[in-house]
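REQUEST FORM: STRUCTURE PREDICTION
Request ID: SP-0412
Submitted by: Lab K.M.
Chain count: 1
Length (residues): 507
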Amino acid sequence: MKPLFLTGEDLTLRSFYEVVLDKRPVRVSPIATRRMAAAYRVVKRVAARADPVYGVTTGFGKLADQRISPSDIEQLQLNLVRSHAAGVGEPLTREETRGVLLLRANVLARGHSGVRALIVEYLLTLLNRDVLPVIPCRGSVGASGDLAPLAHLALILIGEGEAFVGTSRRSGRAALARVGLTPLHLEAKEGLSLLNGTQAMLALGLLALRRCELLVDAADIAGALSLEALKGTPVAFDPRIHRLRPYRGQAAVASNLRALVAGSEIRASHVHCPRVQDAYSLRCMPQVHGAVRDALDYVRSTLCIEMNSVTDNPLVFPEREEVLSGGNFHGQPLGLVLDHLAIAMTELASISERRIERLINPEYGDLPPFLSPHPGLNSGFMLAQVTAAALASENKVLSHPASVDSIPTSGNQEDHVSMGMGSALKLRQILSNAEHILAIELLCAAQGVDFHRPLRAGAGSRQTMKLIRQRVAHLDQDRVLAPDIERIRALVASGVLTTVLSTSRHT
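STATUS: Completed
RESULT:
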């Protein structure tokens, strides 16, 4: 794979995922190197002057009125990194940490931070060699960005902290030695430039976005299979209906559902049945799933802007030799969209759980109780629905927005904070729960479709059935369901179901 050259202004989602997930190598572009050198020269000149410049010749936060002598400027940056490395909790995952390294390097490469190009070279060496700082996941309020997580990243550059090297956990100094590097001596502003920014919550958000994009496809596929199993009608997906309420997501979901059930013999068998319309969990899939897709579009646009934004403070403008203090580090834009995403995915999982309940409940159709061929002696999928209900309920608690909270910090200097990292962390759990709920729906819907044999489902649903049955057999007698759920959760998370949707749309 060809290297990606960072400029700080044109990183794409595709490139981000190629680097973070597929280990595409990364280099610094010559343009970025020149820009960083120009900003670095400005900082050097500013550091030698008498007038105060935040974070260069002053303390930090509430201590911004404390002047720092020129002889202490380097010690100031070292102290900053050490004192801010106060994170707790389990480390970020390898993928999340790779994302943080890439995004931080990209911000610095833009040339408004005033750091040496050497700083970015160190970050990219760690990334390319897969030597990953141990970054505790908790401790950020998303105010001056993700200070604590980014401080733990910066520790490695000075030979402190810890890093994952392969399967082992090494000291920062040993990790640097492993890739032929020696600890850095941070110069003016370099510690601050490494710590200010939103890259931890952004990395988590971008990886969550990818999972969400797979989940919305899986939800359409699961919903179509449930429609077949419950002998629902696709009339509600008629394009004429959706042209009268022209949300893009709604129209896309209706189109997906029509394509998945096209040619269904199960549908043909009950086309003249007396039922006029289905329950909302079936009939309103375009409206609910579609609203989630529209939410994803909004979130995606925000995250793409953030990827190539400069989010530290103060910012260097070499063309006028100015260093300006501002608030680009504030995580509010991310906190809001990540909370929006959490609410959207909670709804996607919630409507899925309602379809599961309809599949197992004999009051709603002609399927056997709890989808067991021998109910009474066997409980079938009774407890699978209970698990889905537990997860759906947990999601409702977790979807309470973190971004509406604020606890002042730093002696009330940082008197309104975003809690964006909190939004990102609880979104992780919501997505895991949603993957499991959709897996349970797919298992139940496949079991339901089996009872309609020899009638065949639509072509898209048949493809889905084949993928499920390659991994999990039909449930004839009770067995432990946990491994079945996990196998289908892995199918949902793999993205394979997206290919089913793509094939269905083009046939």
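NOTES: The mean pLDDT is 95.
Reviewed by: T.R.
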